[in-house]
Amino acid sequence: MSAFVDQLIATHIRQDVQSMHAYAIQDSKGYTKLDAMENPHQLPPQLRQALGERLAQVALNRYPGERVTDLQQALARHAGMPAGCALMLGNGSDELISLLAMACDVPGASILAPQPGFVMYALSAQLQGLKFIGVDLTPDFELDEPAMLAAIEQHRPSIVYLAYPNNPTANLWDDATIEKIVRAAPGLVVIDEAYQPFSSRSYVDRLAANPHVLLMRTMSKFGLAGVRIGYMMGCAELVAQLDKVRPPYNISVLNCEAALFALEHEDVFAGQAADIRSERARLQQALSALPGVKAWPSDANMILVRVPDASRTFEELKARGVLIKNISKMHPLLADCLRLTVGTADENTQLLAGLQASP
After folding, report:
1. Letter string b/e over residues 197-229, b meaning 16 or more CB atoms within 10 A of that residue's CB
2. Residue 359 pLDDT greater than 70, yes or no
3. What CATH number corresponds to the domain at position 302?
4. SS3 37
5. Confidence check: pLDDT of 26 > 80
6. How far is CA 243 from CA 80, 106, 127, 205, 231, in A?
């Protein structure tokens, strides 16, 4: 059987897929989980009970219907979507990124994004057979404006991704530079606001003035990482074209109802985001006092730090029961860098104790 399967794979699975590695998820059982930029807060007990009772009434025997439209409208209100725009739903932002690559797969198409950045931008291009152009950030993780503009002029990409703020560096880039890139782009510009609940700025007020710009967000950082709801807003005519490649019924009835419930209680999630921002400030202040540690400013629910030996610090924290993300081999600019998710007060205290104890 093994020889047959080996031959089957060699003959019928794309060579580039065979050489890829599946997205790796760290085993987090038994650890303080600070590796995936999740909201560490659960719903209060009374809301958990109310949600459970509501989900019990969902018709699981029916395909998703008009409640999905209700969710689109609720998200549009929540996000302050401008007039003349429309909203498209995805099974997380990952699906939207894949659908964008599919929709823009015209002859000679390419996708351009700063690096280091979210891995799905490049992966979506590879899986769709598109060229990906990565443009390195500066050593301090700012946009390299001349390099970005030169790459856009040379490659004329179908899609330019700009994370706002960026993952894994957690910083907001200069707005004047972003506007120059938006004006120079010959195709779509996707502003990825995955971390909007923790950010000091948003692009939403400029969306209507730029019909080639799409604004992408997710409910994962809002507090529903397990629900898998992403959404994208932009010029209604453009979104209508992109929506044609969306699979039917891509949002489950349970996910849809859970998201609607959360938006009805958005004040609870806003309070959680405020707590995370407060804890982020405490963490950044404490990190700045640690010898040998460099922490970059953050507008997200994560902090990028550089330590003398990332692998050693990662293992020492893991031995103390704290799981973070070692990104030191993701890109040369990230040498000896770790990504720390902002957790609860107790979790952050545990993280700091581990870092302080690490030589």
Report:
1. bbbeebbbebbbebebbbbbbbbbbbbbbebbb
2. no
3. 3.90.1150.10
4. coil
5. no
6. 20, 17, 19, 23, 11
SS3 label, residue 292: coil
Contacts of 227 (CB under 8 A, 6+ apart): 219, 220, 255, 258, 259, 262
Q: What is the mean pLDDT of residues 167-185?
A: 97
331-353 mean pLDDT = 97
Question: 165 preceded by cis ω (within 30°)?
Answer: yes
Assess whether 245 and 273 both reside in one domain.
no
CB 251 within 8 A of CB 230: no
- Residue 168: predicted pLDDT: 96
State percent of the chain over pLDDT 70: 99
**Mean pLDDT for the stretch of residues 176-196:** 97
pLDDT number for residue 51? 97
| Torsion of Cα atoms, 68 then 252 then 128 then 3, to 10° | -170
The pair phi, psi for residue 328, each rounded to 5°, is -65, -20
Is beta strand 294-295 parallel, antiparallel or unpaired with respect to 302-306? Answer: antiparallel
User: Does 70 share its domain with 100?
Assistant: yes
Structure tokens at 249: 């019924």
Mark whether 121 and 158 lie in a shared domain. Answer: yes
DSSP secondary structure code for residue 187 in this structure? S
| pLDDT greater than 80 at residue 25 | no
Examine the pLDDT at 23 and tell me if it is beyond 90: no
**How far apart (Å, rounded) are the C-alpha atoms in residues 203 and 192?**
9
Positive or negative torsion for Cα 237, 243, 249, 253 = negative
Whose tokens are 């302080």? That residue is: 356
Taking residue 269's Cβ as centre, other Cβ atoms within 10 Å add up to 20
Could you tell me if residue 51 is inside a domain? no
In a shared domain, residues 67 and 206: yes
pLDDT average, residue stretch 157-172: 97
Shared domain check, 282 and 341: yes
